[in-house]
């Protein structure tokens, strides 16, 4: 009985050690195959790319384009307006729009001070002009001030 028991134990030990050996051999071959394909393992840990924990979220690198600020609105500038002369009996108009510089201004209004104009002459703020109806008599006046206000 002792021999049979010893033989059974030897057979049991041999089959257990073969299974363990095959298990280790299979696991080692799988690890080598994965490392050879660029996957995990010790060889992959030596690469230049950082290793992150499973499930870790690495935020994407974003770059923002430089923002160019909008130009600051400048106040409208009124250039020197020459003397305005109308001929009696001939209705006409003199535009002052060409004498106003309004760069970077979305809109502006133009107003005239309260100094009275000669008879028959009116200031048209919408058209930016002095209009003569041809009826008034000629006159020289001074002290008229135009004011441009940016909106």
General shape:
rod-shaped
Unreliable stretches covering 5 or more consecutive residues? 1-13
Terminal residue distance: 114 Å
Helix content bin: 25-40%
Descriptive report:
With 151 residues, the protein is α+β, with helices and mostly antiparallel strands. The chain folds into two domains: 2-45; 77-150. The protein is built from two helices and seven strands, in the order H-H-E-E-E-E-E-E-E. It has helices at residues 2-36, 42-45, and strands at 77-78, 92-95, 100-101, 108-112, 121-124, 129-132, 146-150. The protein has a three-stranded antiparallel sheet, with no helix packed on it. Strands 1-3 form a two-stranded antiparallel ribbon. The termini are far apart. The relative contact order is 0.13. Residues 1-13 have low confidence and may be disordered.
List keywords for this structure.
151 residues, alpha+beta, 2 domains, three-stranded antiparallel sheet, 26% helix, 17% strand, disordered N terminus
In short:
With 151 residues, the chain is of the alpha+beta class. It is 26% helix and 17% strand. A 3-stranded antiparallel β-sheet has the order 2-6-5, with no helix packed on it.
Topology readout:
Elements: H1 2-36, H2 42-45, E1 77-78, E2 92-95, E3 100-101, E4 108-112, E5 121-124, E6 129-132, E7 146-150
Antiparallel strand pairs: 1-3, 2-6, 4-7, 5-6
């Amino acid at each position: 009985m002792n021999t049979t028991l010893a033989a059974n134990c030897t057979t049991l030990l041999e089959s257990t050690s073969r299974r363990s050996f095959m298990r280790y051999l299979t696991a080692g071959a799988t690890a080598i195959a994965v490392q050879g394909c660029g996957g995990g393992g010790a060889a992959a840990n030596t690469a230049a790319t950082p290793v992150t924990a499973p499930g870790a979220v690495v935020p994407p690198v974003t770059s923002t384009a430089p923002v160019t600020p909008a130009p600051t609105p400048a106040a409208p500038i009124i250039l020197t307006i020459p003397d305005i002369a109308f001929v009696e009996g001939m209705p006409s108009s003199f535009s002052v729009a060409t004498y106003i510089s309004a760069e970077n201004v979305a809109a502006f209004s133009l107003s005239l001070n309260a100094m009275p104009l000669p008879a028959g002459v009116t200031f048209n703020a919408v058209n930016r002009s002095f209009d003569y109806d041809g009826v008034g008599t000629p006159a020289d006046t001074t002290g008229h001030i135009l004011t441009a206000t940016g909106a």
